[in-house]
């Protein structure tokens, strides 16, 4: 029988009694004179679970009596209000308000079936709930509705309801908190007199300070803004504090109005809590389906609501100084594009925790391809911010996943559950857990019945285990407390611990289900990577099956590309023990998994597409396909062009299929049109920004919008003539003339002598397509074109160096000699930066003798005629001694094909290895007389390469000369550009 009186102190603290009552109730009513952050934090998770998981009704009444209640505690209560709680405050003025009452009720069909009311001396403070000598009487109704206890309980609840409607009681909101904080008088001796014995800041959590990683990121963000960028992407692994980073950066920038956009309300609420701690005095509001506030300092909005045109129109384009968009790839890109085309903040920050560049494609495009800062999970471990791990990739030998139906990028839920909830698989998991598991395990299951089954199976073996999910007998907050206290050994969970819940004491993660995405996998892994004094490392037991649906796991953990070739190469490295891991980490894959990965070698573009689609749980974009390392050249050879491949995979919607039938030739042109500069793609980007296929813009408007694109995408400025590179203060008339003479002229066929189709024309001062886009297909057409433009800009971006004002003088001085054409109007804009591991850069690093550099086995440098080659790196190559210092960020190795350079003092023979160094026009110096790898694009847009000595003729023209007289020389033209200089060569036999 529950005790009638709790007396506090270490022998009978009030907190366990209160938590038990909260977790048993579907209605919770609190009336507490003084609420301190320290006390609220101790019951907050239980209150959150009551609202979020059980749908309980929560009412809280506090006061401003003696100005004791924490403003920070009031802001935390507002987070509960956003979840549906009714929070009110009694304005005391001269009236004493000293209540301490906690009423918990459980009902069934409107009738009270259980209740507990505590009335006594405990305010909501840490001391009062734990070791303070506090007396609280418990009153509980009985089965007899007319018993004394039942009448007392009803009286307490009735009096509470009457007080809740008192004239001095006001709904708590942020303006009220601001006024309260402004007038609040805090006198320490009054706290004791008021019965709140703990000092104000004794348990108050200190304001957060940026970590080392966050300070680095803040510096990078400040630098990118100094360079003129208005958008940027930051990649930070789970646990490194990307949301706090956004809060710190908005504070650093002095932003007065901040917008945080996400696709799920849970993310918005978590972000709000972080921003509140950094901006404690800010007015906070929400723009979602239920609430639409506008006049606030921090606005947290769902993209589904704010992305609609009628809601966007409520905000001027420059209304927000700072916009944060979290996890772009969770939502449809057109929704975000509409929002970002309307809003023009001083800075926009994109956030993601996903390391692999494939998943960054959409978000990177929306951030103007400006990757500002990147720190992955391994970085966090190396820096000591996350816990080392021991990873075991265990072959799921009891399940043949080929027998489970696979639809729309995921397994059929019911069929999967039937395969996983078996005695054989439970024994398999139990055996590995006994061998490797530690004391506190969090296990991820596919369904409620699967979690119940596993918990029951472990319990039968004497293991303290429980299943936890929405509606389970054991709630999330209580389960975590039991796990931390050692009263539980294993929690089998479904969807409640993927993100937003931290328990540093977790030492084992048991992955018993396939994951739909790399983000989900990393979130689950991240639950155990928090540091804890009693934990040296995290054990990860990951059960992997014989199906491509599991490929996202090595992709996520080891940043492996999505192409089958890259996955097979990863399998070989795992087999040979060559996986690169942070200090203190270990990874082992069962041989059956490794063999499965290696067998993937040799698949074609269609299979790469399927793997990428399954990894993303949606149709990939061409930019994502390109960034995954898959071959666009191979795609076009087998399928013609991108949208044809998508059609072959039955991934087109009916509207897209109809649009493809009408506009296939134009789509192919956008995908493959020759580009020696970025201008053609920038013009199309501007056209899409202006909705120009629906309402053709004037040439002046198109030109002005292109200037806006360059102001965002600063990396492309190097393509512009040096006299016009100051895009923030350019002469608009000169710019208009320049733009007419470049891409407008090119797209309207002004620089073509053949009878090829002209896709655009200028008529009555407007730039318009020469073909018709039907009214009903505009949205589909523009989305399909946008994806191709994103791909062209993504594929072009690596060719550009980082242009700075300091480099302009050097660039101008060397412009004639640093370009193959030698024309002042078409200066070379930089070498192609290949797909190097990590962020590619041409900035010099310390050169090392004999270092390993990237090796591109499929990038064959033609020593004959131009030859098409691929640039996806799958391995590294140790440069032989005697070739001097090399820097893996600038040097790379490829193979020679042909004998055009087989002559002279240093012949290059067919099959030789070539050591090459990327060139940067702003630092390259003269190329005359040097042997260079020269790049161009063929008629289909594929990259081709040739090795030749660059020679300048007296009339200023350039010739690419062969060393073997049997091969012809080439006269350089504007389609060619120097990519790398030859440093050395050696034969295959050394």
UniProtKB/TrEMBL annotation:
Q: Where is the Helicase C-terminal domain?
A: 425-627
GO MF entries: ATP binding; DNA binding; helicase activity; hydrolase activity
- Domain Helicase ATP-binding: residue ranges: 223-373
Q: Which domain of life is it from?
A: Bacteria
SUPFAM superfamilies, from UniProt? LexA/Signal peptidase, P-loop containing nucleoside triphosphate hydrolases, Phospholipase D/nuclease
What Pfam families does its record include? Helicase_C, Peptidase_S24, PLDc_2, ResIII
Q: Which UniProt keywords apply?
A: ATP-binding, Helicase, Hydrolase, Nucleotide-binding
Record protein name field: Helicase
- Origin species, per record, is Thiohalocapsa marina
